[in-house]
Amino acid sequence: MIRRFIRISLLILLAGAAIAESPYEVLRSTGEGYAEVMPERAINFPQDHQPHPDYRIEWWYLTANLTDDRGQPWGVHWTLFRQSLAPAGPVDDWSSRQVWMAHAALSTPEGHVYGERFARGGIGQAGVAIDDEERFDAWLDDWQLLGTGPGPIPGTLSFTIGDRTLTLELSADTPWVLQGQNGYSQKSDQGQASHYYSQPHIRTTGTLTAPNMTVNLSGKAWLDREWSSQPLAPDQPGWDWFSIHLDDGHALMVYQLRHDEGAPWLSGTWVTPDGNARPLTADEIELRVKERTEVNVGPEETRALPLTWTLAIPSLEQRWDIRAVQPNHWLNTAFPYWEGPIEVTGTTPGMGYLELTGY
Amino acid sequence: MSGLASLRRLMWVGLTLLSHYRRHPAQTAFLIIGLVTGVGIWSAVQIINSHARASYAEADQVLGAQASHWVRASDGGGVDPDAYIQLRRAGFTQLYPVIETRVATDAGEPLWLIATDLLALPRSEGSIDASGAGWLAMIQPPYQTWYPPELAESLGVAPGDTLTLSDGRTLPPAVPQSQQQQGRRLFMDIGAALDVLDRDRFSYLAAAGLDADTARELEAALPSGLRLEPNRQRLDLNQLTESLHTNLTAMSLLSFAVGLFIVFNAVRYALLSRSPTFHTLRELGASGRQLSFAILLETGVWSLIGTGLGLAVGFGLSQVLLPPLAATLQSLYGAVVGADILLRPSTWLLAWGITLAGLVFALAMPLWQESRQSVRAARDLSDRWVRDRTARRRLAWVGLILALAAGAVYSQMTTVLVGFVVLGLALFAAAFCLPVVLGAVLGWTLRALPEKAWQLRWAFSDGGAQLPTLRIAMMALLLALTANLGVETLVGSFRTALTDWLDQRLAADLYLQRDSLTREELNLPADADWLAASHQRVGLDIRWRGRPTEVRGLEPEAPDSRALPLADSSNELSLWYVWDTDNPVILANEQVRHLAGVESGQTITLSTGLGDRSFEIVGFVHDYGNPYYQFYLPRGEVERLWPGRAEPQGLALWLSDRPDAEASAEAALLAAGAQAGDWIRQAQIKTVSLRIFDRTFAITAAMNGLTLGVAGLALLTALLAIHQQRLPDYAHWRSLGVRYREMGRVLTLPLAVIVLLTWLASMPLGALLSWLLIHDLNVLAFGWTMALDWDWAPAIRLGLLTAGVVAAALAVSLWRLHRQLPEALRRLGGQS
Asked: What is the predicted pLDDT for the residue at B238?
């Protein structure tokens, strides 16, 4: 979702190209020269699993809520971002203007480990492509999401952080969910938008290996695909994003784009167990911060983040209390943000992932 | 007496002593000048040396990212990008690609260039953040070239300029900005380097912080043709550059010594006006212990002032001296020295320590002696003469002892450090003996002059009166002149030797530089009528006796192999040319002989691709400027012993004497696939080599100039002191009717004689110094031998320079004398 755009801004922040006061600026800058996100553009499979280098930014984004053999909660998030540094130019050699970035994070019952990597495009160190065996392949160095066919699901995710290696088998029976209007996801009333589709119903099993340790994991995962050239309006400082797997098989995505003044931009999607999606309008969603928690964001620094929320969708007669499983899931990457598993209680309980940016 | 009262009294005594400096600003100024110049030059070198060493400690980093290992191609041909990607995808994310190469501007100026992929640098090193703003533009067309600002300035490259290389290629637009460990190298994105330099391979892959297990895994995962090497640059650089830094330290210590002479001079000058204060203080009841404490206090205060100001000057000076030294280190040793100088606490402490030690000798001891003088200490001139004669004799005895010590240590000289101890002993022995010689010559001349020549006799007799104050300055001048002459002779001899050597070694007309352009590759027609001969060298780097060592394969029948610049050879030399596998012989550079201590006829063992092999050394070749050991074997033997490892090392072409030979050669080369700029003419290499040489010795010239400047100051302070102190005498002379012109003559003549004698003495001493430097120290330090090439020009230049300084100092003194004499006469009138 929109949230993912922030990661791309990392690249720009590091590149020093961003307007100094806000790394988010790249997300708000006009997409001049790049391809434009248009409502009438249809999403096509499997072609749209592949990169769209004529758009400024794009990502392949996976989160998973897992449990081990003892029933303890684990979480995984893995993202691959692509960015075009310039609207035109070569894609396929050392002069490529495509840049790739990946984040991988593992939420363990005791804590949180994560890593980040960068690579230039065009040289084979990172990319998304169809491999020699006609399989979907998304990779940066040895971090990889490899499909069994032309799409990422079913497939295998594998990455290493330090001396821990994770391998997850991913599969799903339901169709891809097109977010917004047939995959056209509006982000403001000023025309900012993205192309956006998801697979919220991914079954997953896998193993984590580390020296003297092997953990079997299983649970549910969520894959997002999104690309755009100008996703944010100039007065949107950050966002809060929720993806939730409910125990009855439904899935829910809700986000709010906070606004400098006035009401946030609220949006969401309700997905049935068989994969039918119903877009939620802003006036159907009641999202409130219940409590802020001090979170370690550096060796000597804490910040109060909204880690406990109430969410209600009266039109669906649903109401939940949401809280972070563990507070200390700050990613002190080059551009820092909070992302971690959440526990959902209420009308229908469940598990999910929360992302907080711009704090 | 209570403790407090005693402390107050001590303070009072100390302040009384220090008040001297407030009342005599000129003396204060000289003292400060002496301290500041001495400490300044010493600390500048200290700062530079420790900075360079700190840079070596970071030599296992590339642009701020650590590099514990290298991955290189076994055949020296560079690393294929596909192999790199394959290794990254196998999880070896510690690897990053580097292109490091030497290019040349179209004016032939060599430039070092380094390129990497900032995106691929290990994250923990934070290099992207460290590189700050601007890398976005750097990694995409039209790219950027990052110049260290200092280098951009010296090349005359302005931001946005595109520099043209000797091969006609153009570098991306310039941006003045430097990275950690960039040194004087140009920095570029690796994609840009592949494109601009038209390459398809990396020089090597660097690996950040591999632990032993990962290193083993990586080694196993390497595709064939690549090998993993530990990065030993830090150790190698420390070893290779040690001698150079010792040289610099020695020169800076000499400057420090000369600075102390000024201090000593100023203190002696001050003593005369201060002895009444000491006596008054004693009479007022200050105890000897209190006076001693006060003197220590004064010494402490001066040491702090001298250290502070000296370090400030030294820091400024180091900024000026570092660029030429950094250029030298880069061209000679490949060492990267950054431009950001830091003043370390250890330098502060060391500077304070040596200043304090120096001041104890130059300030505290004379003061202490003066304070112990009984009130009956005579104030008349004749007594001072007598005392001075005794002091001169005593100095000469010390000088003789130093000379004996120098001789004794010389026979035991095995390291550069001990070599400099010998030099120091010899120099100071000569300096200590100088006053007695000067006194003797003045005395003999006086005795030899006829009675009638009363004015000359007066002048030489007055020389005796000047000598006590002048002798320190003359000792400083002798030291400075000798050091200057010695070093100039060394540099001159070296330059002559280097020029001859270049003539002999660079005998071919054209040299092809691109390693991929071998004779075989070019497929030059053997019967081309423009080609007289050619020589394809090959080589590889190995380690021998723990040091980086080069093995070179020569073609024995090539013209330059037939006329190698041999320093020494055995009777077996001819065996090298007619190779016999059962009787393997080898040639080595002089460094092997002098630094590794191997003699002709001895056997050495090299580890080859086929195991250890032994060779008998049959000759040594001059190899100036090379810090590495080098061995020469016939090319075929190198290729046989190190299969697949010998890389091409350039192709030399001799042209026939046809008038259009050069044009034909160039046409043939172009037709064979070479590009303009791939070859270089003999004359151009020589020019560039000599330019590098001159730049290498720029720092020596700078140090030399500084030392002489300090000596000039010493002379000036001494002359001003003499005239200030003798003002009452001059007033007497005037009142007796002596004219200014006559006074000028009387004062100038002995001074001229004294300075002339000092200058004359500096010549044999300078020759001795240069002989020691060339014959012993240079060999110990670098392993290069050369002939001493004495040139009169520097001696005459220094003589003129000294005469100029003396004339200027004299003019200032006489002008001040002229202004102050009326006042002195009035005082004289008041006294009588």
From this structure: 72
Tens of pLDDT, residues B317-342: 888 877 777 777 776 666 777 666 67
Nearest chain A residue to B214, by CA: A163
ipTM: 0.89
- Which amino acid is residue B750, in one-letter code? P
CB B194 within 8 A of CB B178: no
Average pLDDT (A330-350) is 90
- How are beta strands B547-554 and B679-681 bridged, if at all? unpaired
pLDDT for B24 beyond 90: no
CATH H-level, domain A2-356: superfamily: AttH-like domain (2.40.370.10)
pLDDT, chain B, mean: 81
Cis status of the peptide bond prior to A154, with omega within 30 of 0: yes
pLDDT of B130 > 70? The answer is: no
Position B26: which residue type?
A: A
Cα B134 to Cα B125, B138, B176, B259, distances in angstroms: 18, 7, 11, 47
A162 CA to chain B: closest CA distance, Å?
11
Three-state secondary-structure class, residue B430 = helix
pLDDT at residue B58 in the model? 64
Average pLDDT score over residue span B433-461: 89
Q: Please report residues of B whose CB lies closer than 8 A to that of A123.
A: 81, 85
Give dist(CA B616, CA A301) in Å, integer: 69
| Neighboring chain A residues of B82 at a CB cutoff of 8 Å | 124
| Average pLDDT of chain A, as a whole number | 87
A12 chain-B contacts, CB cut-off 8 A: 136
Residue A29 — very low, low, confident or very high, per pLDDT cuts 50/70/90? low
Flag whether pLDDT at A124 surpasses 70: yes
Burial grade of A303 (CB within 10 A; 0-12, 13-18, 19 or more): middle
- Across the interface, whether the CB atoms of A85 and B140 are under 8 A apart is answered yes
**What's the average model confidence in pLDDT over B84-97?**
93
Q: Does residue B483 or residue A249 have the better pLDDT?
A: A249
Residue type, B254: L
Non-local CB neighbours of B616 within 8 Å, separated by 6+ positions: B572, B583, B584, B585, B586, B601, B602, B603
- Peptide bond just before B764 cis, omega within 30 deg: no
Contact assignment for A116 to B190 by CB distance below 8 Å? no
Query: Does A141 contact B93 at a Cβ distance shorter than 8 Å?
Result: yes
Instruction: Pinpoint the alpha helices (H) of B610-697.
Output: 635-641, 661-671, 682-696
Of B85, B90, B141, the CB nearest to A123: B85
Tokens (6 digits) for B361: 């000798």
Does residue A250 carry a pLDDT above 70? yes
User: CA-nearest residue of chain A to B193?
Assistant: A94
Q: Which of B82, B93, B189 to mutate to test the interface with A (most CBs of A within 10 A)?
A: B93
Beta strands at B611-621 and B566-569: parallel, antiparallel or unpaired: antiparallel
Is any Cβ of chain B less than 8 angstroms from the Cβ of A137? no
Is A262's Cβ below 8 Å from some Cβ in B? no
Q: How far is A241 from chain B (nearest CA, A)?
A: 28
The residues spanned by each domain of chain B are 1-59+239-377, 61-230, 384-499+686-832, 514-677
Kindly list the residues from chain B whose CB atom is less than 8 angstroms away from the CB atom of residue A160.
91
Domain ranges of chain A: 2-356
**Residue B404 CB: number of other CB atoms within 10 A?**
12
Best CA proximity match to B302, nearest among B271, B343, B333, B264: B264
| CA A229 – CA B463 distance, rounded (Å) | 91
- How near does any CA of chain B get to the CA of A76, in Å? 20
- Which of chain B's residues have a Cβ under 8 Å away from the Cβ of A141? 88-89, 91, 93
**Which of A91, A94, A159, A333 is the best residue to mutate to test the B interface, defined by the most B CB atoms within 10 Å of its own CB?**
A94
